[in-house]
Amino acid sequence: MIPASFDYVRVGSADEAIGLLSEHGEGAKLLAGGHSLLPLMKLRLAQPALLVDIGPLRELSYVTEEKDYLAVGALTRHHDIATSALTLSSVPLLAHVAGQIGDPQVRHRGTIGGSICHGDPASDLPAVLLALGATFVARGPNGQREIDAKDFFVSFFEVALTPDELLVEIRVPWPRDALWGFEKLTKRAQDWAIVGAVAVRSGNSVGVGLINMGPVPLRSSAVEAAVLSGANAAEAAQFAAGGTEPSADFNGSVAYRQHVARVLVRRALEKAGV
Amino acid sequence: MRIDITVNGTPESHDVEARTLLVYYLRDAVGLTGTNVGCDTTSCGACTVLLNGQSVKSCTVLAAQVAGDEVTTIEGMALEDGRMHPIQQAFQECHGLQCGYCTPGMVMAIASLLAENPEPTEEYIRLGLEGNLCRCTGYHNIVAAALAAGGAPEMHQ
Amino acid sequence: MSILGNRVLRREDPKFLTVGGTYVADLALPGSVHVTFVRSSMAHARVVSVDSTNAQAMAGVLAVYTNDDLGMAKFPTVMGMTNEAMAPPMLASGTVRYVGEPIAVIVAESREIAEDALEQVVVEYDPLKVVIDPVKARTDEDLLFPDAGTNTSFSLDFGGDETLFDDCDVVVELALVNQRVAPCPLEVRSAAARMAEDGRLEFNSSTQAPHGVRDALATFLGLEPDQVHVVTPDVGGGFGAKAMVYPEDIVVGWCAQKLGRPVRWTETRSESMLGLGHGRAQVQHVRIGGTREGVVQAYRIEVLQDSGAYAGFGTVLPFMTRVMTSGPYKIPKAECASVSVVTNSTPTTAYRGAGRPEATAAIERIMDVFAREIDMDPAELRRRNLIGKDDFPYTTPTETVYDVGDYHRALDLALEVAGYDDLRAEQARRRATGDLRQLGIGLSCYVEITNGLPDGEFGAVEVRPDGKVIVRTGTSPHGQGHVTAWSMLVAEQLGVAIDDIEVVHGDTDIVPRGAGTMGSRSLQIGGAAVNQAAVDVVEKAKDLAADLLEADREDIVLNKANGHFHVVGTPAVSRSWAELAETAAKDGNPLFAEVDLASPGPTFPFGTHISVVEVDTETGKVNLLRHIAVDDAGRIISPLLAEGQVHGGIAQGVAQALLEEVVYDLEGNPLTSTLADYSFISAAELPSYETRFTETPTPVNALGAKGIGESGTIGSTPAVHNAVCDAVAHLGVRHIDMPTTPIRVWNAINDAATGDGSAKGGR
Fold this sequence. Notes:
The structure holds 3 protein chains of 3 kinds. Chain A is of the alpha+beta class. Chain A folds into 3 domains: 7-53, Uridine Diphospho-n-acetylenolpyruvylglucosamine Reductase, domain 2, CATH 3.30.43.10; 58-173, 2-Layer Sandwich (Uridine Diphospho-n-acetylenolpyruvylglucosamine Reductase, domain 3), CATH 3.30.465.10; 179-271, CO dehydrogenase flavoprotein, C-terminal domain (Enolase-like, domain 1, 2-Layer Sandwich).
């Protein structure tokens, strides 16, 4: 299968990309690794008039340690995050999750920014970044702004970027003593999660995220509150399905997904030392 | 548009549409048909090639995206003296192929896996091949070939 | 020393490994145009109109044709057995009956233009009532073919003995689904056609049966068979689904004829998931009865076969299910009845095993249920009922005659390799501790039929003056390794090196006849034909050698160590194959033998598979830990190839038990039409297998060989399925339908816990 025709520009700078987005509006799409967009284009479910290829902007591919957070460039590929010594030592959860996305070939091409901006509630990274309390840095014609992860995922496949904005960096706060657990249920290794759960705990803070339990990735504040008030993993996990609206399909009914969410949250919490 | 890509060490330059996928650039423009197309959803891995040394699915990469880069296909795997690469040899020794359709993609995927981990475990290979589908071999002998190639002296030079 | 039985590496491999195979889509075809098909987006509808005006106006679009343009007859019935009114047309004619049914064909200058044009063809539909559930179809409430007055496409009913279970102390029943699966060869369907300079149609096809394609093209295009030249280059797998001719093949040939341009067609995977025939698709009701001591006395299976939208080969699969009704057991009374019905889904066809895995799945599953009912170990129940090695030839209640076997030996070896007692002990430990991860152990004793159809096969051997040997075979490999195996057979007879042997297949000009490769028939009939031709050519050579050596023919011997003929006792004076071939050529009578070997009848491979799974009882996820396969395919000619066949079969069998299913919604929309949605099994879901062979040579053919192509699939599915059910049996679960996906396993556990012990674990 072949995408419908489009115009193609390979940009030399972020500003050039933003300028093209401003000029062409909704008809233009950013192309990073292409592993979310190109499959849709091949099935002709997406037919952008203009592809703005930001692949050459290697300056947006990095993992660096800042004072309070790990900074990850939006064009950093999953494989590079998974194998970065810095990620492995400072945010091993992020390395672990990046190392499980898709398959090795997908991880060699797919980028963290592309994955997040696609806004797929079934993908792993958004829920993990929610649980970690990450901040996303977007750049537009009027400069740069920071968006809290909890405000970023607006609705099904929709994120809080304007059509002329470019995600440039992900900031991941990371207390040194954190424990974590990540659990996902799939039929096959390469499948998207039927349900996934992530838990991060450090001192007095806890973050719990849910994958594929609604139209957007979720953070489970009820579970977090239970943990903070002294509940054990099994007790806290009973709140995992509250407020979720998973879809039903042949991989799982709503009741099944909610049950699995409770199981996986419990397991993730146990691994996170709760 | 004109796209220049170095394929198996040879500079290639061809006029193609912007929508041309790397796999069709290789097959139709360059004329290397060893790389196969097996699906349309980035699932099967039959089209796997090395891009700057790393495995990628060439059905999900635009040729335009990799202009100026280096691509290696199955046709570029044999050693300079014409002998088969240790992975290719291991596939024959272990009977790691039947119909052959997934084979080029499997070989390239394994080349990348072994480059990243020259002394693999069975679990590493099995998980590493999650995105390469085969209908004939049941994977048993493909995994055996990858492990054998991982232990091959030439792989460690 | 014989080369047979040795681990000879494949001669085919270097090409595949260095430059890749040459599949139809790889063939250069200068000046070719591309074909793509407009396919139905509705499961059942009247086609009001097909508006291709915009598409035809596009630059680079040559034509858009519908069935009216073709003016061709429908396909014939299958073996005269299926309902004539339900035969498929080339392109949809007035009514579409499944999503994916071809409605029109677009011919364009490039693949890109063809795909662009596809978006410009507008089909207007008038929806009809959709029939997707075969049980519903059988009621004839809504009909796919009103003219037929029924949805029944084929039926079989033997027996009907109402006293069948009268003598049984214990009778158990089970309703089960042998779900619809997609064969998924890695290479999709592909064809390339052109009118050659001599006016013949040259047709390249990704098929298992080139001569069948030739004959079908000739029939539908109004040509004589010798006006059609079919070539199969390398074929990227078939698994039964490429054994038949598809409407698209005929249409591609027609377009080449009509336009006088070379035409090529390669479907996309998304099309293939809808257009390539599906496999299995049976709803079964089984009943078994016997004594509390574990003697099975009676068995009955009722099959409801889903034909899909038209009556193709899948319709008659129950015929093979019936042949294997009672499996490897000595059951005094057994019956099979079946009905096939049409539904608004992709037509079904042969898929690795084709009717036999369905028979095995049914009896093996209910053997476990019966064992549990009488509280007997399932291995012990099987041992008590297996046909004994002295009982052969054995005639079953459905009148199948099994050739030879030692079923107990295979069972005992499998139990030994598995360490069965230790596994049961570990299972008991986990049950006692209430482990969240429960162990399941599943057995499957099977017997199946290979070369079950009556076709014979063509084989020829020619020795050339340069000493090279040309072998021609009517079978048509697509991964099986015939080049290597046939070379071994001929090397064995002629005493030449296998590198001096060339094996030619899949070209109807060079190989005059052939039935192709399917039904695990190739070695035992195609290989046997080649073997016979080799024997014959040796006899001819002895005549020549006798002349040249001026000796009695009876005194001529072939030294197979060096491929020289000499007079017995005087090896120093000899003639080589090359010398004899040269003499023969000078005489104008090439050193050549060809054979049309009639089928000596089927053979019956057998074995025992044991599977060990771990079930996460909280999520229902199954992890396959071990799979042990003991198979007996008679004499093993190539252990390398035989083992490879078993491996591949196991993976497909496991896939059916655990993961794979073609799913439709109630409106007949396919939900598994890509490899992202259809759970094609990968290396990550499988362990390495533990395989063993026992060898019980068959008296049926000269090689002593049975087929091995499908045993792995037939044996593995019930073992894995039984293992999953076994893992949760102590929780009150009686049965879970395949595929045993997490949701189904969890539903079954949950239903059992909440009191509904008969739960089947539906979605």
